[in-house]
Structure formats: structure tokens, C-alpha cells
Amino acid sequence: MAPLNSTSTYNTPDTSSLALGWVPQPKGRGTLSILLSCVTTIFLCSWSVLCLNIPEPGRGRWGFLKYKLRWQLFAIFFPEVITSMAAEQWESANQSVRCFKKLGYSEWTMRHAFFADMGGFMLKSPDVPMFPVDSEQLAYLVEKNYLQYPAIDQETIGDRNKADGFARLVTSVQITWFFIQCLVRWSQRLVLSTLEITTFATILATLNSLFFWYHKPLDVETPIIISMESRIADVLVDAGDRARKLYSRTPLDFIKSPPASTSIVAPFWFGMGVVFDFDKESNSRPVKRFGNCKTRPPAGITARETIYGILFEAVYFGVHLVSWNQVYPTQAELHLWRISNLVLLGLLGAYLVVIAVGKASSRSFSRRWQKNEVGTPLEVAAQLPRWAQVIIHTPILAIYLAARSYILLEGLISLRSLPLNAYADINWPNFLPHV
Question: For labeling, which of 162, 249, 356, 415 is most exposed (least CB within 10 Å)?
Fold first, then answer.
């Protein structure tokens, strides 16, 4: 038998081995069942996985819905980026729990940390309009005795959590069933459509994201206000030179750690911000919300987490290569599928090389060319002229979007002509152990 999803040579499609057009499903798999199964799974994954930060005040229900739908569209195109974002938020929450434990507050949990980092606590002071504070800033204010520890239990945060248990159950059942079917079809050497392979990769990303966001409250729309008797001005004066720089988000920016030089996702967010002004927080200062892509682990990213990120990205993109030699409706589609996947893997490799080189040369480059020593590649990039930032990032994102869009498109258009084997049902009696 030929290898799974493969053919030994490819000149022109062998139409005798293809099911052309719409295939009904009275006694087995059909075009509609493949399409509905994949579309439903991708929709459920991209919707239920999202644990977004608190949106701008005053949006209302329709505003919140549009806010989440935009992120759902992003999750369909970039599920691997959502996972990387969730992983860094998880690490930030872990570090926050350890920090508060050192301060003597063992009751501070992962849920508290996530809630703070998503903009759940609004700080009210005598001299500055209210603004959100993250877990790192809260720990600083508590440690310096500017603010009493916010004794808010998990139940209070849970009251704002709109997690729909039934929706999560439906999603879990669907992705588990789809996952099992794919594995069984592989084991029985039955062809998977490119749309199913793309959906399978989406499930891998979703499962990782759900793990990292397990403790993060879902669909919270209103923050908790905490009051501070001390003035922000006093906090800034006591902090000395490091607090004299004009802030970009809130007066407590000086407490926030710079982006980790080993972060895999931070450069991506920087490029998205340059090209698309993506996830803009607000025009007001101080800001009224935290953007979803702004969370940074205070102590940075460890080597273990960097290795995990690289392996995850490699597996996610590598899954698509399962259909490297599958029979496609046309030879052009075969080549475009291969090129698109190689481009994504190539961009990942180049991306990692740039991060490594940037980490090693940021200080020397900034000293020589920018006359201002900084320690991370992103800080170097932030000091470049606007036109240079656009020229650098626009082609990269355009190529990435084109490759990713073609993979999604090919998954749909290839349904018009699939190998006959793709419509064969699983032989469950041969798979299940005999009782």
C-alpha cells in the first residue's frame, strides 16, 4: 500500500483515483460531512479558546461582540500566535504568584494574577484619573506600602467570569472526537483532506492554549476598582530617575519590565502594531485597558519556555507536511501547498535566527548607530524611524499572510476533487480491541 496521503510520482492528477465534484453521503463520508466537521471544529476552537483582556469601557454588548469576533478571525489565521500569547500570560501569572508569596500573600492565586494582567484592577488615586495596574505593578505598590493588599477572593473574580460550561463541553467533545478520528484514519492509512489536516493543527494549538488559559477568567467586561490614598506623584518621586521618563501607557510604566529578548511572540506583535496598528489600547493617557498582546513575564522567558515555543511552532507547521505528496486537483495546487508550508517553516527559521542575532548584537548596534545603548532587539527596533519599521515588517507579514491564506483556501477548494480513499469510512471493528 502506498504511504499515507502520498503518491509515488506526480505529473497530472489521476482522475480515476479522484472523486470529482460533490460527493453525497448516504452510506459513508461525503463532501458535506467533511466540510461541516472541519468548519464547526475551527469555529468552536477559535471562539471558545479566547480569554481576552477587559475591553475599553463603554463598549456595550455589541461592542464586546465585535471585539471578540475580530479576535476570532485572528485566531483562525494565527492559532499558533494565540498559543504563544497564552503561554507568556501563563508564565507572567506564575511569576506573579511566586512574587506575592515572597511578600507573604500566599492567597494570591493564578486566577488573581491573570485577572490583574488582563486589566481587572483599576487603580484610583487622588491625583491621576483611574487606570489599570497589572500584577507586577500591584506587587510593587504593596511592597512599598503605597497600597494595601487587595483582599479579593477567587469567588469575587469568579462572579465576573462568564465561562459557559456547556459551550466548553461541546467544544471539548467535538475536538476530542475529531482528534480521535484523524488519528484512527492515519493508523488505517486513510487519506485526510487538507482541510482536515489544517483543522487538526488548529486543535493542537487550541489544546495548548486551553491549558495555559485554564485559570484565566473568560469574557470579563467590568474591572474591580481599588483605591490608594498615596498620590501617584509621590510614587514617582520616590522611585527616582527611572520614573522620570514620560510614560506611554500609565504613570507606572517604569515598573514594567522590557520585552524579553528570548520572547518568540513579542517581535510578531511589534510588527503587527507597526503595519496594522493592531490591538491599539486607546488614545487617552493613561490608558483605560491593557492590550491582549502586551503582557510580559517580569522575570523574562526561561530557556525551557523558549525551547517549548520553538518545538510547538515546529510541530504546528510540520503537521501540514503530512499531505506533502497527496494527490491534488491540479499540479499547481500541489506546488502552491508545498511552497506555502515551506515559506511558513522558513519564516519560522529566519525569525529564530534574527532573534538570536538580535539578542547578541543589540547593545553594540545601538551604541554605534543609535547613540543610545539598549539591551533587546525590540528596543532597537522601537528607535528606528517609522519608515524603516514599515519597510522591514510589511513584506514579512505580507508573505506570512499570503502563505497562511492559501493554506486555508486550498483546504476548501480541494474538496472539489479528493482521492476516493478520503471518503472511505473508518473500520472501527479493526481499530477497537476485541472484548
Answer: 162
Contact 138, 121 (CB under 8 A): yes
Cβ count near 169 (within 10 Å): 11
Q: Would you give the DSSP letter of residue 434?
A: P
- Look at strands 18-20 and 224-227 and give their pairing: unpaired
Contact, 213 vs 51, CB < 8 A? yes
What pTM does this model have?
A: 0.88
Residue 236 grid coordinates = 514617582
Hey, what amino acid is at 9? T
The whole-angstrom separation of Cα 202 and Cα 75 is 9
Q: SS3 of 406, please?
A: helix
User: What's the rounded Cα separation, in Å, for the pair 340 and 403?
Assistant: 5
Spatial distance between the Cα atoms of 180 and 175, rounded to a whole number of angstroms: 8
Taking only the tens place, the pLDDT of each residue in 194-223 is 999 999 999 999 999 999 998 998 888 889
Phi-psi region of 52 (alpha: psi -120 to 50; beta: other; left: phi over 0): beta
What angle, 0 to 180 degrees and rounded to 10, lies between the N-to-C axes of helices 165-187 and 31-48? 130
Contacts of 117 (CB under 8 A, 6+ apart): 53, 89, 92, 93, 96, 134, 135, 290, 295
Q: Are 271 and 396 in contact (CB under 8 A)?
A: yes
Q: Cell for 408?
A: 486555508
Residue range 45-83, pLDDT digits in tens: 999 889 999 888 777 778 888 889 999 999 999 999 999
